[in-house]
Amino acid sequence: MDVKGAGSSLDSIISSFNTRITELQELVIGRNMYPASSITDLSAVDASLKAMELQVQAIKDRLREEIEAIPKAKKLIDASLRQQKKLQSMYSHVPSNLLDRVAASNLGSSKSLMSETPKQCTNHDNEKLEEEPAAPLPPPKEKKGRAPPPLWFITVDELDSLSSYMRGRLTLEKVNASISDMAMYAEANAHLIAAPKKKLAENIWEKALMMPTAEILVILGSNHTMNHLRELRDIAMTEGVKGKYFFLETDIKGPSLKLDNTGKAILTVLRHLGRLSEIRIGHHRVIILSKPQ
Fold first, then answer.
1. 292, 275 Cβ separation under 8 angstroms
2. What pTM was computed for the model?
3. Is 243 left (phi over 0), alpha (psi -120 to 50) or beta?
4. Is there a contact between 174 and 262 (Cβ–Cβ < 8 Å)?
5. Helix crossing, 172-193 with 96-130: angle to 10°?
């Protein structure tokens, strides 16, 4: 049985060998029939394959770059969405009276630009007619003075963080409008303190009330005598007050903040939230604007 099996296996190997030789002979005959064209066709196929491989490699590289950029794009989108929510929250917390003030200032600046444009055009035409070089304009003078008091408005989260008995019926609009009033009181006192240190007659004070700062002074609604001015300057030089914006309790006369129960509740809330601090100097109760921590 073993001898027969070995013989059959040898026969199958010989048969396979003969079949392979026949196939090789046929391939040699086919190659010899078209020797030149076969080499050219194979070269063209090889060039096409190499070009396709380069294109596939370029596509792979591009896909890899896009995949690596996806996490960065996601982070950028998340940051943009957070910034959008933050800006929307800030816009919703801005009091309406402040928006009206900003709109009015923008309108005034646009009108001033429109009034300056015709003058510039006229000067330009005159220069063309005279054909003379224009004299250089003097550099704009920097406005010296103190910056206006900052408006540190509260947010909905801060108002909600208060206890119910402290918050009461206060709304975000009322509290932020009161912050605007306090900034106006402090700015009015800053204007008075920065006035020249000389004896001002009553008629000079009346003329001062006709200046742009008179709007703030009228809101205060009190007759600022020389003694009051000296007291303000003394308070401004006191330790703990110097260099800060402040106003007196007697300055609180509206339009939004008043010395009633609601006004006292608003002052308590703002003191709790770190927007102001209070000290007593002489017979005055001094309220200092503070930056929230």
1. yes
2. 0.47
3. left
4. yes
5. 50
Say whether pLDDT at 137 is over 80: no
Residues 6+ apart with CB under 8 A from 145: 194
How would you classify the pairing of strands 246-248 and 284-289? antiparallel
Of 136, 177, 123, nearest in space to 153 by CA: 177
For the segment 229-257, the average pLDDT, to the nearest whole number, is: 89
Token representation of residue 15: 């048969």
Q: Return the half-sphere exposure (C-beta side, CA atoms, 13 A cut-off) of residue 252.
A: 20
Task: Tell which residue, 241, 141, 255, has the closest CA to residue 193.
Answer: 241
Q: Fill in the amino acid letter for 254.
A: G
Confidence band, pLDDT 50/70/90 cuts, at residue 240: confident
Q: How far is it, in rounded angstroms, from Cα 106 to Cα 90?
A: 20
CA distances 158 to 85, 90, 96, 274, Å, are 17, 13, 19, 11
Indicate the angle between helix axes 172-193 and 226-236, nearest 10 degrees: 100
